[in-house]
Design goal:
about 500 residues, mainly alpha, 19 helices, about 85% helix
Amino acid sequence: MHRISRRTATQWNLVFQYASIVLSSISGLILFPFNLKFISIGLYGAWLASGNILSWLTLFDPGLGEIIHQRIGAALGAGDSSRLRDLVSLNVTVSLAIGGCFIIGGLAISRFIPSWLSITQPSDAKQMVQAFSIAVVGTGFLLFGYGISGGNIAQLRTLSQGVVTTLANIAVLTVQILLLSMGYGLLAIAYGILARALVLVVGNVMILWRTLRLEGISISLGFYGARGMLSDLTFTSVARISNVIANNLDSIVIAKVLGNELVPVLRAMRSPIDISRWFLERPAYAMSPALSSLVGEGQMDRVRDQVFRLTKFVIWGVVGFAFGFLLFNQYLIRLWVGAQFYVGHTVNALLCIWFIVAVVTLNLKYVCLALGDIRAKNVMEFSQALPVLPLTILGGVLFGLPGVVMAAIVSNVWIAGWYMPRSLSRMTAMTDDDRRIIFREVINVFFAAFISIFGAIWFTPTSWLQLVLAVSAFGVLFIASLSVLSVSMRAEVYTLVCKFKH
């Protein structure tokens, strides 16, 4: 079996994950105000809410893909060619079935979307149905492409897969800007989704074909590799259904309870925070194939070391970003889309708390899945989803936007703070000393953040240059304070400096 360096694969995966984040960030920062220039805020808000419905349709994926990708990595690490062939065949079959079912289901409900989202203008309703139908086809192809992509990454084909993903992100940005300028309205967004999907599918199918040819493996459609997955799939499907519904409620609740016009408002305040989430979540995602391969080889000491180091990076990053947004998000929103899209310090503070909880939760999910603890990941998702529907509706009705954000925090906080850390500690055999080190890092990073706030609270930037300088000053002060307080941070900074010197 042709071996690829796990270290090299992880590095390339991380490089392209961040390249994808940069492109997505640029797209989001450019396209959000650009969309509002060519599409009315009410119709655009309804479109954002329809995205939640598209996400609900991904329930056609019961979560089998996640299990398959983890086991592909383990089979690769164990050098089991026969098992790898069956799993890759299963991955292609399942991905094709999910994408096809999604398209059929989405097209069947497309004509009901205007009434569900209270779109009364006939011209807007017609445009919404057309755009939603095109987006359904594009998303169906995306689901197929993501399935194949996940299998390619599990086989450590991260360089070629990263190139394809980058090209797909460029395609959606180019197509959407071009068609918006030509007056296509919502259809421009939908065709952008379709363009991205086609690039992703064609590119990943070519990567898979080349990999199979190199390994001398032939595959066929079928479910031969599904043995032993039924028990995991039962928990996964229930958890996934709950999770998809729970994570795609906010826009629908806001649209129905508070009005379509407020959907873009919350999206604007969340967009910079969501972009930062990607930066902090990608390392765990990039490491997942290598971790699964190490588990397959039984190298649990190396797994423990990598997870322990990742944990410290996540703690430092999530607290630093959260306190940065607490100070500067209002100035960023006002400069980017206008003061009318910043709805107050209360919502901003709640979004920063949600950011910490969400980043910790998702990083723990990626690591647990990579290590094969699928049941713990499923319990997390189900427990997270169970209270979120009543809490979101109740919060939206009683407290408006703050209540919607608070619902997301409450439904996640015990998972991020207790259940998943306990599961991770058990899987990696963390000692009491390890836990004390992590606790000290949490204390250190909050002290550093408070010091940085007192040093940067006097900044009131009124231009992009001033904002960049203020954020840079906060970042330098935060890293300097943390380096003084944390031995681990000093060691990482020293290692980084030595690498640059050489």
